[in-house]
């Protein structure tokens, strides 16, 4: 399980230091702090970014908005971002609003405001509203990652690393090569959010990553995954075997 990667775009050292402190204490990974528009672009393109915190004004100019406008048109590269500003200028707010930020916070920020803003940005970006605050889910699923809230902390798991998912009532055990952890989400919900071309249900309690399958034993109702992990294949779900080319 990885920490969420945050890029901070803030030209005032005291402000960026405060952000780094709050986010680091809550287990976010700071990939970099940019003081200028160009530095922000360089860090954005050179690193894996999950979310960006952007100061509207950089060196007295609204270059934070310019940066947001730029990353909004990056092919397949759009990431959620939130604005921070001490400006109360209505025209600036209207221009910033056009970039569709996921939050707009006035300085000085407080810890809870910024943490809640990041959670909401992830939820809204992946169109899974209130996932971190509902009674039956603590996970947001994107095309390539799970964003999981544990206590006050958001964590990230790469979907490609999942071997299989074992369902127990309202909980799911997520098993990877190196880890196993429990998330609060129902079978019905997680199946809706996973790519059916990559994951398949093999039993009422199991979902497997198709790319991790090493052996299918239809007669014994067994699937062997990478690392010799074994899951059950029930008769009800055997049709998925037709998707594989069988060598005879």
How is this structure best described in words?
This protein is an alpha+beta fold and 248 residues long. It folds into 2 domains: 4-131, Response regulator (Rossmann fold); 145-243, OB fold (Dihydrolipoamide Acetyltransferase, E2P) (Beta Barrel). The chain is 25% helix and 33% strand. The relative contact order is 0.10.
What global shape is seen?
elongated
What is the arithmetic mean of pLDDT? 85
Determine the CATH superfamily of the largest domain: Response regulator
- Largest sheet properties: 5 strands, parallel
Distance between the termini: 40 Å
Can you write the helix and strand succession as a string? EEHEHEHEHEHEEEEEEHEEEEE
Query: Would you state the CATH class of the largest domain?
Result: Alpha Beta
CATH architectural arrangement of the largest domain: 3-Layer(aba) Sandwich
* Order of strands, widest sheet: 3-2-4-5-6
* Fraction of residues in H or I helices: 25-40%
* Number of beta strands: 17
Please report which band the strand proportion falls in: under 5%, 5-15%, 15-25%, 25-35%, 35-45% or over 45%.
Answer: 25-35%
Structural class, by secondary structure, is: alpha+beta
Count of domain modules: 2
Stretches where pLDDT is under 50 for at least 5 consecutive residues are none
How many helices? The count is 6
Organism: Flavobacterium cheongpyeongense
Pfam families: LytTR, Response_reg
InterPro entries: CheY-like_superfamily, LytR-like, LytTR_DNA-bd_dom, Sig_transdc_resp-reg_receiver
GO molecular function, one term: phosphorelay response regulator activity
């Amino acid at each position: 399980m990885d920490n969420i990667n945050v890029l901070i775009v803030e030209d005032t050292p005291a402000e960026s230091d405060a952000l780094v402190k709050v986010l680091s204490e809550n287990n976010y990974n700071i990939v970099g702090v940019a003081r200028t528009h160009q530095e922000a672009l360089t860090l954005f393109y050179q690193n894996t970014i999950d979310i960006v915190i952007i100061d509207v004004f950089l060196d007295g100019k609204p270059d934070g908005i310019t940066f947001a406008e730029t990353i909004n048109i990056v092919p397949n590269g759009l990431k959620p971002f939130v604005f921070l500003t001490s400006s109360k200028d209505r025209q600036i707010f209207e221009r910033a609003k056009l970039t569709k930020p996921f939050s707009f916070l006035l300085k000085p920020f407080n810890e809870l405001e910024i943490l809640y803003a990041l959670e909401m940005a992830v939820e809204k970006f992946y169109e899974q509203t209130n996932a971190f605050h509902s009674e039956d889910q603590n996970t947001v699923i994107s095309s390539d990652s799970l964003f999981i809230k544990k206590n006050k902390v958001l964590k990230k798991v790469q979907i490609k690393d999942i071997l299989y998912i074992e369902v127990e009532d309202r909980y799911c055990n997520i098993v990877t090569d190196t880890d196993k952890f429990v998330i609060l989400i129902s079978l019905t919900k997680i199946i809706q959010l996973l790519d059916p071309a990559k994951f398949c249900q093999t039993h009422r309690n199991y979902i497997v990553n198709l790319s991790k399958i090493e052996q299918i034993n239809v007669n014994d109702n067994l699937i062997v995954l990478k690392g010799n992990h074994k899951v059950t294949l029930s008769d009800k779900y055997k049709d998925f075997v037709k998707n594989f080319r069988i060598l005879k």
